[in-house]
Each structure stands twice: as C-alpha cells, then as structure tokens.
Amino acid sequence: MTADPPVDLAELYRTHHLQMVRLARLLVDDTASAEDVVQEAFLGMHRNRGALRDSRAAVGYLRQAVVNQSRSMLRRRRTVRAHLKVAEPEIAPPADSEVILAEEHQEVLRAVDQLPPRQREVLVLRYWSEMSEAEIADALGISKGTVKSQASRAMATLAKIMQGGETDGSV
C-alpha cells in the first residue's frame, strides 16, 4: 500500500486561492478581511500539513478553515464594536461597486447580510460553493438535518426581506 503524496501547497494555492477568497468575502463582507482569512487558513494548513492524512481532503480542510477563520473574525469585530466609545464613520462603497453587480444582485446580497450567521454560512456554501448538504455539515461541524433546517429558514427569511418585510432576526 502506497502512502498518499504530500499536499502540494503551492498548487493548492494556485488552484483554490481565488475561490476561497470569494467564499470568505461572502462571509466577512469585505475583501481585505477575506484575503486575511484565506491567508490564515493557508498558513494553518502549512503548519499542520503533516497531520493531513489524505491529500484529497486538503480542499475540504481548507474550506473548513476559511469558514472557521471567518467566524473568528466576525466574533472579534463584534467584540471590538461592542467596546467602541465613539461611532465609526460611514464608509462609502467603492465607486465601481454599482458596475460590478446589478442592482438586483446587490439587493440579494444586502438581504443575505441580514441573515443570522449560521443561515448565511449555509446559503453561501450551498448556493455559491455548490456544496452538498453532507459537505456543508462537515464544513460547519453540524448535522445534515441542521443544514436543511437552516437553509429552509434562511430562504423563508430572504423571501420575506425581498418582499419588503421586516425581520426581527429570530427566524
């Protein structure tokens, strides 16, 4: 029986970096933070590459690391904002943002941003990353049933938001 070849991190980076940045961008809502999240995930993979037994699982490991790093970043943001003494200044969106996405897509993204974190993660992984329920459950460390219920609740909440209804965040 031959052992799997070691993970080629350079090749993994070349083939999956952009995809992981896009995933993180949808979860943390800004490109610079998304790039930091992905960088940390790759660094973690580099530090622990000896522990990765199956090189074919490297992409799944990386995706899970990106989701976990995104969660950590969002927790840190909440903590910082909770302790800020002064209000943060309004930051205008980039000038080209209107060109990049059609208004309809922007409305959907704004609605997705209003979802609770777990629901947002499930939808991003399901519809953007095109992952199966089992893959999502594995990446998020939850059961397939939880994936299904979170996706269902998220879609119901999105429909309500898109129809102009207010949500109280408890859906």
From TrEMBL:
Keyword Aminoacyl-tRNA synthetase: no
Assigned keywords, A-Z: DNA-binding, Sigma factor, Transcription, Transcription regulation
Keyword set includes Transcription: yes
Pfam families according to UniProt: Sigma70_r2 (PF04542), Sigma70_r4_2 (PF08281)
Residues in RNA polymerase sigma-70 region domain copies: 12-78
Gene Ontology biological-process entries: DNA-templated transcription initiation
Matches recorded under InterPro entries: RNA_pol_sigma-70-like, RNA_pol_sigma-70_dom, RNA_pol_sigma-E_actinobac, RNA_pol_sigma70_r2, RNA_pol_sigma70_r4_t2, RNA_pol_sigma_r2, RNA_pol_sigma_r3/r4-like, WH-like_DNA-bd_sf
GO MF, any single term: DNA binding
Domain RNA polymerase sigma factor 70 region 4 type: 106-158
Record-stated family: Belongs to the sigma-70 factor family. ECF subfamily.
Protein name listed in UniProt: RNA polymerase sigma24 factor
Lineage: Bacteria, Bacillati, Actinomycetota, Actinomycetes, Micrococcales
